[in-house]
Amino acid sequence: MRMGSRPKPSRQRTSRLSRALWLGATVALFSVGCRASVSAKVNTGGDDDELDESVTPVSSTLDTDPLDVEYALNGARHDLGLSEQAKSAASTCSCLAVKVGTATDPAFEWQGGVPRIDPDHQLVFAMSSEGKACEKEPEDSLGASYWGFRQEGEDIVIVVENARFGRPLTSGAVIPKPTGSGRVYLRPASREVPYGRPADGSTHCRLD
Q: What's residue 199's pLDDT?
């Protein structure tokens, strides 16, 4: 070896240098790719003005959504009664004037506003024993009172009881609409109840 001359790099050193350069280039490309990916996510998700313009406001469809309509629940209504004209109408059920129909029927009198009723699945029922001659009426009875309803097959059966002191007298209710070819019937809660018996002696009085 002559003085002043540099030694030639060995093959092992050259191989290490190549690997180091390749690794550095790979890390640099990966870093650039990550920064581009992060930048793209921030721009897409953080631009509120652009997002608002492309999305239809939810409130524009909720106002007419039928699922938001609130209907009255089935059951007794203490704010419901019959009009004076309906009370004097003839009835096939003993000791009672009765009516089944829609909530807006003029035969019904509401103490407050008329509730929203589902016309496809609900009906309104009201009755009155006021002014009706009733041979077997108990002395301590205050008249007929709604007890509840039952579903028997496709039919809806309204049950009537004797109103007494200490118990609320209820003269109306919202009931389910019969399904298929079903009908609405009325029957007394027990043998001691004279209200709602049919003229033919059967247990159920049909309401037309």
A: 85
